[in-house]
Each structure stands twice: as C-alpha cells, then as structure tokens.
Design a protein that fits this description.
14% strand; Rossmann fold; alpha/beta; 38% helix; elongated
Amino acid sequence: MSHAQGPLQGLKVLDLTRVLAGPTCTQMLGDLGAEVIKIERPEAGDDTRGFAPPFVPNTRESAYFVGVNRNKKSVTLDIAAPEGQAIILRLLEHCDILVENFKVGALARYGLGYEQLRHRFPRLIYCSITGFGQTGPYAPRPGYDALIQAMGGVMSLTGEPNGPPQKVGVPVADLFAGLYGCIGILAALHHRDMTGEGQFIDIGMLDTHVAWLANQGMNYLATGENPPRLGNQHPNIAPYQEFPTKDGYIILAIGNDATFERFCRAFGCEHLLADERFATNPKRVENRDLVTAALTPVMKSRTTAEWIAALEELKIGCGPINTLKDVFNDPHVQARQMVIEMDHASGQRVKVIANPVKLSATPPQYRSAPPLLGQHTEEVLREMLGMSEEEIAALRARKLI
C-alpha cells in the first residue's frame, strides 16, 4: 500500500451519493488522496449495503458496497430533518467538493441545491449525477443502468445478429457517468486554482452513454443507418472476432492488411491473398461472412493455447476468453497488482479491485477499507465540527444520526 501523498491530498469531499455512479466518482477522488465523507441514512445506509448475496467472506458487508466505497468515512445523518440540513451546511464550511446523485430538484427541497449554496460557498465544486441531467424533457425521470443502456443505443448494438438486444454484463452506464463526473471535478479544481471560483457540474447518464458510442455512433452519423448487431465481430475491421478452436474459443484481432497477409502465409491460407474479396480490410468487412467461413476450419485445427503461442510469436493480436477466475489468476493481472487486501473494521482482511491509474509520483492510496455504516459519525462530528459528547448523544437519541 502506498504511503505517498495523493495529488488531491488536503481536499475534502462531501459525498451524498449512493448505489454506483456517484460512489464510483467519489472512490476515485478518495483513491487520489481526497478525504471523502460519505453521508448515509441512519439505520439503512447506502442501498447497496443490501445488494447481497454475495457478502464479503466472514462479514455482513455486501460485495457490491465494498467494491466502490473504500477511502471514505461513513457518517449517518438524516438530511430530511432541519437539524441534519444544518449539519450539512456546517460540514460544507470545511469541504471543497459536493457530489450527489439525487433526483433533479430533490436536494433543493432541503435547502441544499447548488443555487442555494453557491453564494455562501463560492469556491464549492458541486457535481450532480442524474439519469438524464438537469435540463431537457426527461430530466425528472429516475435513471437506472439497464434503462440507460436501452435508451442510449448500446443494447441495439450488443448481441447476436438474429438474437434479442442485450445489455453489457456490467453496469457500464453507471460506471461511465461516475468517471465522467470525476473528470469534470478535476477540471473544475484546476479552474478554481486559477480563478478562485467553484462551479456546477451537470452529469447525465444518458449524455455520457451517448458520448461513448464512439465509432458506432460515428458510423451512424456518417451513414444515417443503424449499425446492426454483429455478435463479437467488429463493425469496421475483419477478422476481429471470436473463433472456435479445438478445445474452446479465442479472440483473433487482425487490425490491418499487413497482419492479415502475415497470418495467411504462416497458416496455409496463401490462396486467400489472391482473392480480391480478402485483399483489403474494407473488402473483408464487406465480405465478413465469407471471412468467417474461410477461417473457422483453420482456427479449429489447433487448441487455444497452441494458437496463442503461435500468434503471439508473429505479433498477431489474440487472446483467450477468460472467466473471472481466469482473469484474477492471470499472471499479468497479478503482476499489475489489480487486487489488493485491506484491513476491514470487521476484523477481516477484504479483497478489493485496485485502482488502474498508475501515477509515478503520487500513486493511488488505499488508506481505509470500505466503512461500516456510521463508523465515523462521532469522529467527524467531534473533530470537524467540534461537537461535544453531549451534543452527539442528543442527536443519536433523536435518531438524527
């Protein structure tokens, strides 16, 4: 674990997020050194504390919650009560950033909307992550990952040509929204360093989803035609897909004509080079079914391991289709230290997926494991706000914390 100071050391984040998009954003800020104070509902906490099984072994903590809430202090607080709102305002006197993912207008009902706070806290960076953003006809709607994947078009692109639309197997709409939110916050911090001014960041999950349609979105804009579902094939490159081998499957990624020629000459397919339907990548894309039919018997002639050894020697892109067990046992993943263990308040060591950002001078920090519900309530109220034990006990007696 790194003991170097993070690039965001000294910054404080008030985290009013739950589930995945917002917590992804604030965990990244925490990993980069910021102190993150996560506000949770008394007794219930973040919804994902109940998204189980599975639980982390020998704890009552859901794997889902533990995955996106390290480097945070958990404070239970009823922000629907005036006393809770007053405490939020006091905390903001010490904070640089507020991140929230309530429905549009929800925090304004508590006096905690950006327009209500901006004059009192002019340096505050306020990031709202919602399903559809703060404006537009869908702004009032709740946002859910599968809903955004459907409305954002990626489901129309995912799946077999003759099968139903499919969502991606992980909640990418949530994750991208959280990461774009973090990027916006980092840009706003730089702006504040130059001007002293905070600002509002409006992140809509549908916006971020449309943004990462990338080449497929551009394919539509260029042609006016909806790209078809292609299974595991690439819309602009061929062959770039899965093939069956003697004992399983492999991904073959041939990205240019020179590589295709090298493949054909090495594996007995020279005759394809004389066929104009295989001559260039545009022709191979145009005749992708023919390419698949021609290469499938070739790929079935060897095992996956044999193909990987032969293709890697020729610098031809390839890879196995790993299960998660394979992924976490992969020597490269292990060499890159993509799983770490942390001391949890339950007394157990918990495994979490590491931050992938490799900074040479200020690497990500793993200071504290995902917290128990309300684990830091008294610490924060006492140390940041100077509350006495009697004041804290009174709040607890009234179930405000």
